[in-house]
Amino acid sequence: MSDSTSSVEKELLDIMRTELDDEDIDLDDDFYAMGGDSLIALRVVAQAVGRGIDIRLRDILYYPTVRELAASRTRAADPVPPVGTAVGTSAFGLIDDVDRARLPRGVADALPASALQVGLIYMSEIAGDTRLYHDLIGVEVKGRFVEDLFRTSLAALCARHPALRTSLDLAAYAEPMQLVWAEVEPPLSVERVDTGDAEAADTRVKAWAEAELNRPIDWSAAPVWRCHVVVLPDSFRLALAIPHSVIDGWSYARLFVDLLGLYDRALVGDGGTPTSPPPWGHAEFVRLERESLGSPEAAAFWRAEADFPPLLFDTAEFDDVPLQDGRHFFPIGPETMEGLRETAKRAEVPLKCLVLGAQLWALGEATGRSQDILAGVTVNGRPEVPDADLLVGLFLNTLPIRLHSRDGGWAELAQRVFAAEKRMFAYRRYPLAELQRQLGRRPFDVAFNFTEFHTYEELGALRELSTAGWWSYDRNSFPVNVEFMVNPRHSGTGVSISYDPALVTEEWVTGFSSVYRAALESAAGEQT
Prior knowledge:
This protein is of the alpha+beta class. It contains 16 helices and 14 strands.
């Protein structure tokens, strides 16, 4: 590092190297090309603000190198306020006195339900499908199971995350409300297989999971989630069932890491406590979502972005909620993944933008569309507050993204997708349900999600426990859902396609899968 490097550059470089775990990063290395994503960017922002450097997520998006980011400080927005100082982010700060007076005893906080939450509950209720947006995840844990210690750890987890102490009331107040209770009884059930028969343990977990998926959720009674353990002599199966309206997929990873970390500390006798998530993070998200909902500029942006014909069929022609009973998966090998990362790095874009660009190209190829190819993409709406990556809740939204043309090479397509993500960034919290209401139809019929949960890497620090044999279940309400998964715990890296066979044939899905796979392999081999 030269003597001419500014103090801000030195600070930001230190932060980038720490958060990306790469000491070789230099002033001109691109944050996203070096493996950065939105959750890591949140940590970078929090660290920078903590050192008195005023940056925001948007700054990293537009100025992804340390040199550019340091120079952009003179063009930064107003300083980021500390957590809890924004209007309405103190306890009960977003509800009026009338509703507050009607709250039952035992409620520690109450805030309006987010539009995302209400939309998911509404879809689940009108579908009459207890499995819709009811997510399960489980893991085999190697190590001792001491029930008292585990219950204490589960109670600590509930105390740590307000979402786990939340019930929802959609009718009794002036608006749909989420009630955060001061205390809840940890919803733990335990079975034991003393013979050590692993197959018998798996059978019991599956039976519990099936019963949970068929259980109607009582939104008025906290907690709305469940935890189940099947114990063997030297290990145990751990499973959680949580409605998606309470936490999203990224939060699931945080939840498992926190729970196993708390229990591991209890086994070791370590009295230390992990860093706490920001206390008003959920309220700040609701405030920001409402701000976006009330923005004419945001509404106009999304109407213009989504005002194109759907790819597969007229989404106004059906009223029923799609049932994703069809599943298709294809693996992505290490060589292809390495090639994709290299192509993304050369294009100076996130890996997500490259594989999304390939998907949009493949959708155009499979539907005969060469222009204005539209799909939904999952976006992160977590508030920009310190330690926001530690929050557990529902912060993900799915909104349309449009590829104007399929022309050009893979790097160019990825750069166009990245440019589209930059355009939509300021409006990323606009509720999908409101856009659908304005259009009078679904904005898209194919959704895309990219997952690479770095959080699970923290499990390597466990001292008494280790994990193996992950599994999961989820179902959403999109006619077709495409998920690009990097090193998921329940399977190898690959692409999972869920679809409603009543709307999309298996033949079409298989054909699209072949085109998408070929596109990814071609993108992985693209040379400059």
